């Protein structure tokens, strides 16, 4: 994610996700009140919450506040007003995350002790049975890596001429799906060891309706359009076509069925609740013109993708690339808006089973 607080920073371009999180607030609150066994944790004077893939704010602070308010409500409902615990919140993201920006913008009147935990959430981050609630919002669609096969010239899954999988050959789609399944197995296994029995995990993510092809998802179409802009630049000699061939986005929109299958294979969690949320595109409806919508999408994608693109192609192409992308979005906005299907944003609530696994 683009760090700092500049024009293209994530902190200034994450309001699209915020709209979805607002819609999830009631679901998250109800899930905690109904499913968190606070009496089981009453022997602990501290409730520990982790936000995985926190980025640099401000959405992570909003999510944490919602969770803590729900825990306090749970305590009050059970007559534990005088026993409301202290809270410790762990903010996790990659080591390259701008934790300085994150911690310099912590809410001044927060009711929790904050700590940063750098590292990939596809591996262990915390001691055994140490967490009571884990939250992750718009993070698990990021893969741990680009599937190796799609950048292997000798593979049938080599994704030549594209930077993403939706409109590619079946072998490319299968490589992305397999990488997602591998990543989710590691993610769930790590959390199964870290979350206390009866603890909750709340996952908010952009998903794909199971019956919809990857190529018809609006978010995937938009990312494919970014690839088209890069290929246009390659044809003009601005970047090398070989570099484009070797660049792929480490993103995958899994379906609700794929998540259910991953949870079942892991065996340590039950799915207590899974509900759909409004698509990110619904937030765009407040913008009047197609031009403003296209610019908002372009800024949003740049905030998420800039560091990846800069590392592979260099910083000098960024302004030209995203100027071209914004124009392409504006030209074709009505086309993909009518032809595509919005991503199915999901809120899934998982509960750690009381068992060894």
Automatic annotation (TrEMBL):
PANTHER family: S-ADENOSYL-L-METHIONINE:CARBOXYL METHYLTRANSFERASE FAMILY PROTEIN
Name under which the protein is recorded: S-adenosylmethionine-dependent methyltransferase
Organism: Vitis rotundifolia (Muscadine grape)
Xref: Pfam families: Methyltransf_7
GO BP annotations, alphabetical order: methylation
MF-aspect GO terms: metal ion binding; methyltransferase activity
Domain of life: Eukaryota
Alphabetically ordered keywords of this record: Magnesium, Metal-binding, Methyltransferase, Transferase
